[in-house]
Amino acid sequence: MAVFHLLLGLLGKALILLCCLLFVAFLGYCLYLRHIHMKYDHIPGPPRNSFFLGHSPTLLRIMKKDGLVHDKFLEWSETYGHVYRLNFLHYVTVCVTCPEATKEILMSPKYPKDKFVYKRLFYLFGQRLFGNGLITARDHDMWYKQRRIMDPAFSSLYLRGLMGTFNERAEKLMNKLSELADSNKEANMLQLVNCVTLDVIAKVAFGMELDLLKNTSPFPKAIETCLKGMVHYVRDVMFEYNPRNRTFVNEVRDACRLLRTTGAQLIQKRKIAMQNGEEVPKDILTQIIKTAATEETMTEEDEEFMLDNFVTFFIAGQETTANQLAFCIMELGRHPDILEKAKKEVDDVIGMKQEISNDDLGKLIYLSQVLKETLRIYPTAPGTSRDIEEDMTIDGVHIPAGVNCMFSTYTTGRMEKFFKDPMKFDPDRFHPDAPKPYYCYYPFALGPRSCLGLNFAQMEAKVVMAKLLQRFDFNLIPGQTFDVQDTGTLRPKSGVICTVKHRKYKN
C-alpha cells in the first residue's frame, strides 16, 4: 500500500512538472510571437484576426465559403500599398507588387524558394508528392543539376518535333466536338480540354496512350484530388488533424501513391527497354533518361528526383494549360468582336488545312495576344514566393531578414496602376508594338526559376485554339457563372458550358 501511495505521489509530481514545462513552453512561445510581431509590425498590413493565428482565420473563412483568397490579396494590395505584411502563427509573409523588387528578387538565384510553402509540397499529408523536383527544390545546385538534365527535352528543336502529336490529339477533340454539334448536345469545355492536355502530356512526355475522350482513367481524378489537398495542406496547418477530414486526407494520400507508382513503373520499363537496345519513343522521358545518363554520378536520390519530376510534369503539364484554354474560350464567348478577329486570323493563316505547322503558329500573332491577355486576368498559376535571408528595403519599407516574399501575378494583373481598366479583356495590350509590362506580368514566373514548359504549353494551346476557331462556332450557355475556382491552380468554376456548331464557310 505504501508503495502504491509512493507511486501516486511520484506520478502527481511528474504531472505537475509536465504542466510546468508546458506552461513555460507556452509562455516562451508567446514571448517569441510577441518578439516577431514587434520586429515586423512596422510593415503595413491588415489587422490580425488573432494574436496566435494572425490573418489565417480570414483566409480560411474565404476558403470555406468557396471564395477566392487572391481577391483578398488584391484588396489588401490596393489598401496597404506595394508592400504589406501577413502573419500566420510565427511566420511572416510580405506580399510585394513593386516591379523593381519583383525584378530584383525573382531574377536572382540568391533568393531561394519559400521554405514554408515548398517544403509542404515535398510531402502531402505524409505522402511524397513533388519531392525535390524542379518546382520545389530549394537548393540552387540541386535545382540546377535537374534543370540541366531537363533542358534538352524542351529545346525549340525538340518541341517542333512534337507538332504531329499536338495536331493528332487536338483532332481527337475536334472529332468529339463534331459529335456534340451533330447531336445538338452541350459541351463542358473545361472537361474536354482537360482530357486533351492530359492526353498530350502523357503521350509526348511518357509514351502513355490514355485517349481520355473515349476511355476512363483514374488519373484526372487523382490530379484534381492532389491539387485540392495541396491547397488545404499549405493554407491550413491543422486540416489533417481534424477527424472530419480523415476520409479526404486518405483519398489525397492514395492519389499521390497512384501517380508515383505509375511513374516508377514507366521509368523502370523505359530504362530496361533502352538497356536492351529496344526501340523506344523519342519522347521527353527518353530524353530525360538519356541526358541523365551523361551525368558523372547518378545517385538513388537522383533517381527519386526523376520520379518527382514525373509527378511535376504530369500535373503541371496538364492542369495549367487546360485551365488557360477554358478561360480563353470563356472570354472569347463573352467578346464576339474579339472572337471574330481571332477567327479571321486563323482563316488567313491556316485556311482549311488540317495539319498546323510550327511556322503557322508563329504567324498567329493575334491569337498569341488573346492567350497572353487570358493569362493576365486568369493566371492559372497565380504566384510564387521566395525567402528573404538578408535585410533589404522594398519601396521604402525596411524588411528584416527571415520572412518570405509572396509575388502574385493575379494581383498585379488586375491592378489599375499597371493595366488601364484592368478587368476589360483587351488583347491589344500585348500587341507587338505595345509597351511591354514591366515586371507586373509573370504567369510563368520569372528568372532562372521560370517555368521550363512555357513554350510547350503555349504551342499546345495555340494548336488547340486554332483548330477550334477554324472548325466551330460556339456560344456560352446563359446563366452560368464566370467566377474563378481555386484548386491550387485557378480554373473556371462553371466549367465553361457551350453550344457548338460547325462553321459555315462562304463560297
TrEMBL record:
It is a single-pass membrane protein. GO terms for biological process: cholesterol catabolic process. It comes from the Eukaryota. Pathway: Lipid metabolism; C21-steroid hormone metabolism; Steroid metabolism; cholesterol degradation. GO terms for cellular component: dendrite; endoplasmic reticulum membrane; postsynapse; presynapse. It holds the Pfam family p450. Heme binds at C451. One of its GO terms (molecular function) is cholesterol 24-hydroxylase activity. Its cofactor is heme. Keywords: Cell projection, Cholesterol metabolism, Endoplasmic reticulum, Heme, Iron, Lipid metabolism, Membrane, Metal-binding, Microsome, Monooxygenase, Oxidoreductase, Steroid metabolism, Sterol metabolism, Synapse, Transmembrane, Transmembrane helix. It is an enzyme of class 1 (oxidoreductase). It catalyses: cholestanol + reduced [NADPH--hemoprotein reductase] + O2 = (24S)-hydroxycholestanol + oxidized [NADPH--hemoprotein reductase] + H2O + H(+); 7-dehydrocholesterol + reduced [NADPH--hemoprotein reductase] + O2 = cholesta-5,7-dien-3beta,24S-diol + oxidized [NADPH--hemoprotein reductase] + H2O + H(+); progesterone + reduced [NADPH--hemoprotein reductase] + O2 = 17alpha-hydroxyprogesterone + oxidized [NADPH--hemoprotein reductase] + H2O + H(+); (24S)-hydroxycholesterol + reduced [NADPH--hemoprotein reductase] + O2 = (24S,25R)-24,26-dihydroxycholesterol + oxidized [NADPH--hemoprotein reductase] + H2O + H(+). It is found in: Cell projection, Dendrite; Endoplasmic reticulum membrane; Microsome membrane; Postsynapse. Its EC number is 1.14.14.25. The chain crosses the membrane at residues 6-32. Gene3D superfamilies: Cytochrome P450 (1.10.630.10). The keyword DNA damage does not apply. P450 monooxygenase that plays a major role in cholesterol homeostasis in the brain. By promoting constant cholesterol elimination in neurons, may activate the mevalonate pathway and coordinate the synthesis of new cholesterol and nonsterol isoprenoids involved in synaptic activity and learning. Belongs to the cytochrome P450 family. This is Cholesterol 24-hydroxylase.
